[in-house]
Amino acid sequence: VGPAGQPCGAILWESKRTRNWSPGWLGKLRADQRAAKADIALMISEALPAGVETFDLVDGVYIAHPKCAIPIAIMLRQSLIELANSRLAQDGQATKMEQVYGYLTGPRFRHRVEAIVEKFSDMQDDLARERKATIRLWAKREAQIQGVIESTVGMYGDLQGIAGKVMQEIAGLDVLAIEASASIPD
């Protein structure tokens, strides 16, 4: 809320009091930011990511040490007020094209595109994991089938050795014997 009482924007705060930083916090805070329709996401944390000493913008989220919380809040609030005043001055001139331009250049559009990109990336990661798991299962099944073929051909060979010519030929086993011998390394 600005000095004249008009709404200027929203800052979504999250605070952490842990010893270790977790990169997963950023994605969750961005999702919460979109859900809350907040203009700015700010995380105050004792534990900071590598390379951040007191304050920084990381992946669209402001991150700060607790000792910087008040000055950063003042700065971000003032930025929102100035942006709102600038938008207010342009209000009477807004045509549909200007509204679309404002939407495309504003945080809500960026948040929506970020959400799409994040979900697409998650889907790609899931698909890669599923592909690896399926390939592993197929390799296991192939090894099991190969073992069954080799055992069956071996048993048939043993029985032929015992029974001799009395034992009838089984046509399919000849093909399996060829395949089994082709798969045995030299």
User: Mean pLDDT score, rounded?
Assistant: 85
**Gyration radius, in Å:** 33 Å
Total number of domains: 2
| C-alpha end-to-end distance | 80 Å
DSSP strand count: 4
What is the 3D shape? elongated
Residues in helices, as a percent range: 55-70%
Give the DSSP E fraction (strand runs of 2 or more residues). 5-15%
Essential attributes:
alpha/beta, 186 residues, single chain, 4-stranded mixed sheet
Summarize the structure.
With 186 residues, the protein is α/β, with parallel strands linked by helices. It is elongated.
Would you write up a description of this structure?
It contains five helices and four strands; from the N terminus they run E-H-E-E-E-H-H-H-H. It has helices spanning 24-36, 69-90, 96-105, 107-163, 171-183; strands spanning 11-16, 40-45, 55-58, 61-64. It has a four-stranded mixed beta sheet with strand order 1-2-4-3, with helices on both faces. Helix 4 crosses helix 5 (171-183).
Blueprint (SSEs and pairs):
Layout lengths: L10 E6 L7 H13 L3 E6 L9 E4 L2 E4 L4 H22 L5 H10 L1 H57 L7 H13 L3
Parallel strand pairs: 1-2, 2-4
Antiparallel strand pairs: 3-4
Helix pairs in contact: 1-4, 4-5
